[in-house]
TrEMBL record:
The keyword Cytoplasm is assigned to this record: yes
Major location category of this protein: cytoplasm
Oligomer and partners: Associated with 70S ribosomes and polysomes.
The UniProt record lists the keyword Zinc: no
Protein's UniProt name: Peptidyl-tRNA hydrolase ArfB
Protein species of origin: Oceanicoccus sagamiensis
Positions of region (Disordered): 101-137
Catalytic activity: an N-acyl-L-alpha-aminoacyl-tRNA + H2O = an N-acyl-L-amino acid + a tRNA + H(+)
Signal peptide per UniProt: none
Residue ranges occupied by any Prokaryotic-type class I peptide chain release factors domain in the UniProt entry: 21-37
SUPFAM superfamilies in the record: Release factor
Cellular compartment(s): Cytoplasm
GO biological process: regulation of translation; rescue of stalled ribosome
Origin organism lineage: Bacteria, Pseudomonadati, Pseudomonadota, Gammaproteobacteria, Cellvibrionales
């Protein structure tokens, strides 16, 4: 079970968690212990509210397949339990990131005073640069 907020909960039956062998260095232990975790979550078949589903499917993330399945592979820790917690935490962060509404930026106009100050600085800078030239006799 994964709790996103007080009223949005993903039951454990919708999460498909499998243990696989981790990649990379680790000596002899890496070849016999399945410590990495593959987490699969089907967005379309989940019990999430429609708003969450739409936002997740619109998200352009490499972990979301074309069929609408989130696949997360966790293998940073040495133990299976920590990798399971890491995968669940990453799924939670992905869903929260997708549902976070961003503020709409409204373009503002520069004030008259700021425009005047900018132009004054430009003319002052131009005068400074013109004084660097060779003197004319």
């Amino acid at each position: 079970m994964l709790t996103l907020s007080s009223h949005v909960i993903i039951p454990g039956s919708e999460l498909e968690i499998t243990a696989i062998r981790a990649q990379g260095a680790g000596g002899q232990n890496v070849n016999k212990v399945s410590s990495a975790i593959h987490l699969r979550f089907d967005i379309k078949a989940s019990s999430l509210p429609d708003f969450y589903k739409q936002r997740l499917l619109q998200l352009s993330d490499q972990r979301i397949s074309k069929e609408g399945i989130i696949i997360i592979k966790a293998q940073t820790h040495r133990t299976q339990e920590k990798n399971r917690e890491d995968a669940l935490q990453r799924l939670k962060e992905l869903i929260k990131k997708a549902t976070k509404l961003t503020k709409v930026r409204r373009p503002t106009k520069a004030t008259k005073g700021s425009q005047r100050r900018r132009m004054d600085k430009k003319t002052q800078r131009g005068k400074t640069k013109s004084l660097r030239g060779k003197p004319s006799f």
